[in-house]
Amino acid sequence: MSDLTASSASDSIPQDLSEVRDWVTLLKPRVISLVVLTGIVGLMVAPGHLAPALAVAAVLCIALGAGAAGAINMWYDRDIDARMKRTATRPIPAGRIEPGAALAYGVALAAASVLIMGLATNWVAAAVLALSIGFYVFVYTMWLKRRTSQNIVIGGAAGAFPPVIGWAAVTGHITLEPIILFAIIFFWTPPHFWALSLFAHADYERVGVPMLPVTHGAKETRKQVLIYTLVLLPLTLLPTLLGFAGWVYAAAAVLLGAEFLRHAVLVFRDRQDVAGRSLTGDAPARKAFRYSLSYLGLLFIALAVDRMILG
């Protein structure tokens, strides 16, 4: 009997871990990593001081809030996720988590993150956190995503809130500096996501999501990737020009931005057929998408390093 019991217990461990992974997957951990990073930098560069325990609580709330929005997004999009190759194995369409349980999970985490943020720091930060969750769920997921090719442009605002939340957690108010950080992420989002949509357009077309390559074609999307990149790069220099970052950040912004622009130009000049479809398997778009993830993280790390070195 003891051997059977031990065998049963050992067999349940991988299953338990798999269930835990599914619940974590609902939170979109890859997205959370950038959200947490930009939120931490918002905390670091804000004037003032937050006790370490409260700073940890604020970061945790930002992560939980972003994860909650991701879980609700997966609940709402379960119908189209099931028909897209990129998302068909997610826990809800794959049948590993019940939709109702996922929704309850997301709502509970959202409420908890806002309440704890308000109690641990201040209610301005909590209000901005609630706004970011609501914007992602109601404005982007439920309203824009299936209705307009500008879905990711307007809806991208949801992912730009974390540095504002971090700043507000420390100061209790919002000034020009966090708004500039918001703008940087806001204008980074379209070239980042449209690079993805160039090589995932078949999925979006299959489920009727009007991403720009589906509604306006790949050629127009490549042009927009370049245009938004050209708008983004001068914005990244504003922290130095306005005096709340120094030469360390400025040098990083120029170097990182030059590489981002190189990728955007390669996307724009990708070899195409007469219909504007890539003849290279969208290789430049894939590389641009991967680089864009590193770009934003490194840019915000440079801002934090600049503050630590120069004060």
Automatic annotation (TrEMBL):
What InterPro entries does this protein's entry cite?
A: Protohaem_IX_farnesylTrfase, UbiA_prenyltransferase, UbiA_prenylTrfase_CS, UbiA_sf
- Pathway where it operates: Porphyrin-containing compound metabolism; heme O biosynthesis; heme O from protoheme: step 1/1
Instruction: Give the stretches traversing the membrane.
Output: 31-48, 54-76, 97-117, 123-140, 152-174, 180-204, 225-242, 248-268, 288-305
Q: Which UniProt keywords apply?
A: Cell membrane, Heme biosynthesis, Membrane, Transferase, Transmembrane, Transmembrane helix
- Annotated EC: 2.5.1.141
| A GO molecular function held by the record | protoheme IX farnesyltransferase activity
Q: Which Gene3D superfamilies match?
A: UbiA prenyltransferase
What's any GO biological process attached to this entry? Answer: heme O biosynthetic process
- Top-level class of the enzyme under EC nomenclature: transferase
Q: What is its main location?
A: membrane
Catalytic activity reported: heme b + (2E,6E)-farnesyl diphosphate + H2O = Fe(II)-heme o + diphosphate
Q: Which GO terms describe its cellular component?
A: plasma membrane
Cell compartment(s), UniProt? Cell membrane
- Topology versus the membrane: Multi-pass membrane protein
Task: Tell me any Pfam family this protein matches.
Answer: UbiA
Anything else known:
Carbon 2 of the heme B porphyrin ring is defined according to the Fischer nomenclature.
Summarizing the function annotation, the protein's role is:
Converts heme B (protoheme IX) to heme O by substitution of the vinyl group on carbon 2 of heme B porphyrin ring with a hydroxyethyl farnesyl side group.
Instruction: State the family named in the UniProt similarity comment for this chain.
Output: Belongs to the UbiA prenyltransferase family. Protoheme IX farnesyltransferase subfamily.
Q: What protein name is recorded for this chain? A: Protoheme IX farnesyltransferase
Task: Please name the source species.
Answer: Dankookia rubra
Instruction: From the UniProt record, report the name of the gene that encodes this protein.
Output: ctaB
